[in-house]
Amino acid sequence: MTLGNILKERDDQYIANRDASGTWRILDTWHDDLKSIGPEDEIPDKTEAVTILSEGAFISLMKEAGRSGLLDHASTTEASLDAGELTFQYEQAIEKIANLESKLVEQKEKLADTQVYSEHSHIKEKAMDTVLKLAGMDTLISQRFNDLGKE
Can you list the alpha helix ranges (DSSP code H) found in 24-82? Predict the structure, then answer.
């Protein structure tokens, strides 16, 4: 069995692949040139079944397809596919996350300080209540002794 016969059974006719250098290879899996290639063989770039596009050509093709309405949910803005702009937006997002994490740490520290202060305030309030009760009791006892002395 040949690679061409195996690939003809696919629902999708084309396969796109991008290599590390940014070159796109688009394979027409239904092309007759693949009938002579075995499953273990590599598909040569020179065959008519392979279309080679540079990164820039591929991006231009995607932009035009988006503007023409051929792609669902495609962006029509020029900058949407610009790698430099995407990198800039990514770096801004990372910076914003770092700033938010820093603010979160500050807020947690303030909250911890507030809780410590609150605990100290609560202890002071209880101490004041106790002092007031003792003072009140002392006043009552003093009055009671004064009243007993007058009798």
Answer: 55-68
Alpha-carbon gap, residue 51 to 49, rounded angstroms: 7
Question: Would you state the structure tokens that stand for residue 149, as one six-digit string?
Answer: 């002395």
Q: Are residues 56 and 104 in the same domain?
A: no
- In the chain, the number of structural domains is 2
Question: Tens of pLDDT along 40-69?
Answer: 888 888 999 999 999 999 989 888 888 887
Domain containing 11: what range? 3-78
Instruction: State pLDDT tens for residues 111-133.
Output: 877 776 666 677 778 888 888 88
CA distance 147 to 62: 102
- Enter the DSSP assignment of 71: S
Same domain? 8 vs 54: yes
Q: How far apart are CA 127 and CA 124, in angstroms?
A: 5
